Amino acid sequence: MNKLIFFFKIGIETNNKPKNKNKMKRVKINAWKKGVVLKNGEYQRVLSEGSYWIGFSEEVIEYDMAVQFKSPINLNIMLLDNEFVGLTEIVEVKNNEIALRYENGLLTEVMNEGTYVYWKGLLKQEFKIVDLNTIEIDSSIDKSLYARKELVNYIRTYTVEPYEKAVLYINGKFEKIVEPGTYYYWKNSTTILITRADVRSIQLEIAGQEILSKDKAALRINFYVQYKIEDIVKAVVENKDYEKQLYVIMQLILREYIGALSLDELLEKKEAVSEYIMKAAAKRVKDLGVELRGGGIRDIILPGEMKDIMNQVLVAEKKAQANTIMRREETASTRSLLNTAKLMEDNAMLLKLKEMEFVEKVSEKITGITVSGESSVASQLRTLFGP
């Protein structure tokens, strides 16, 4: 076969025709094409651009060098020909691998397991083999390609919001703390879990806590607490349902302290109670990885009967205060009148001025004056206001 190929090449280069022309036919391979010669279904050789004489029992299949080569026969047979191997790029993708094919620097295809053949010489091609057994994506692959339809089915995406932190588990094992951002991993049999936690200040309501005070008064307390996650490993990895545990801790401290106070003490020391509860809780919640920022008693709700009693006590207290004020004012008024009377007794002119003041006040309400008798108006007024 090698001698025959050599003979045809010499014939093409010297433009000599084969002697047995009637048993040959001429074929032409155009530019940027390749030809594969088969004889009775068996591979013979590969032809590049040019004109060739081939036997009538042979056929030529022409291939475009810009597209993937599809072998007309078993590819392993063609790979025994060194000339064919030298003209092609052979890409073998194993199980649990994919190959990224770039044409002139642009991603054009993602290939699954198998053997792929591409012609050399026309396009600048690059092939990147990716091992899917790993989870980290090589930094040499541009992130802008992750959302491409060719790649999206091979990539897992996780997003941690700016107000969150997260922990990464690989195959059920804690791996690392994950900061805010978007993370990409290859899809494979490896289990990846990202557990997120909100690291902003959060308010927890401890509502409707029914507690008996020291004097057996049934109370209902609404308490609130503000907290923030400081150690995400303690909160998420070392503790399960840290928020539920925080709720129970605050609930127990609230019951423990308020149960030791009487109703009057609780009402008088409401702010002090809140301060004590927060200090006591701060020590216990450190193991949960959280820090308390604030809190206090929002409402103290009394039973209906207790409300009525408290209202009656309040009304009685206010009435007593009002009576005291009234008595004090009456005493002051009487003392003032006594002092005025003493002054008038010693000074006749002051008494007369007081009489004229009263007459003036009375006169303000007079709408008319009727004069009777024989004396004139002037003499009657002189009698009324004279000394």
Structure description:
With 387 residues, the chain is of the alpha+beta class. The chain has a domain at 202-307: Band 7 domain (Tetrahydropterin Synthase, Chain A, 2-Layer Sandwich). The chain is built from ten helices and 18 strands. It has helices at 2-14, 75-78, 82-87, 232-238, 242-258, 263-268, 270-284, 304-346, 348-363, 377-385, and strands at residues 24-29, 33-39, 42-47, 50-55, 58-64, 88-93, 97-103, 106-111, 114-119, 125-131, 155-160, 164-170, 173-178, 181-186, 192-198, 202-212, 218-229, 290-301. A three-stranded antiparallel sheet has the order 3-2-5, with no helix packed on it. The chain has a three-stranded antiparallel sheet with strand order 8-7-10, with no helix packed on it. Strands 13-12-15 form a three-stranded antiparallel sheet, with helices on one face. Helix 5 crosses helix 7 and helix 8 packs across helix 9 (348-363). The protein is elongated and about 170 Å long. The model is unreliable at 1-16 (pLDDT under 50).
